[in-house]
Amino acid sequence: MSGKIESRLSELGITLPAANAPVANYLPYVRSGNLVNISGQITMENGELKFVGKLGKDYGVEEGQQAARLCALNLIAQLRAAIGDLDKVTRVVKLNAFVNSDPAFTDQPKVVNGASDTMVEIFGEAGKHARSAVGVASLPRGVAVEIDGVFEVA
């Protein structure tokens, strides 16, 4: 594909990963009308788990932001699988982010900025979104971050 968003990805030196297959009885995405809901994406890269551990114990904010960015790229890969052409995206509506946190860690919003900044970097003004940044005691497979998202498409 050679649309505006694909060109933007190329300019930024970003290669989206292959969309991850679901590992249980759920769909990776569901389209309803002009909304695409993407199931939670974890820190998987080239079939390998990255960033396994807790923020505030195993990782600091900067590494957490890298983990959140990886989740964002996985969200966009799923979105491309769902709609084909990323130029159809009219708005990143909402991100729900879960941060595997040590009990004393309170910088979940700073961690999730890694995903939010990525959405704006790629989609521009349409990448600005509502979000939640929640600290949790654990996440699937022990990953540091998991993010799901809602996208509006034409």
TrEMBL record:
Pfam families: YjgF_endoribonc. Residues 6-133 form the Endoribonuclease L-PSP/chorismate mutase-like domain. CDD domains: YjgF_YER057c_UK114_like_1. It comes from the Bacteria. PANTHER family: ENDORIBONUCLEASE L-PSP_CHORISMATE MUTASE-LIKE DOMAIN-CONTAINING PROTEIN (PTHR43760:SF1), ENDORIBONUCLEASE-RELATED (PTHR43760). This is Endoribonuclease L-PSP/chorismate mutase-like domain-containing protein.
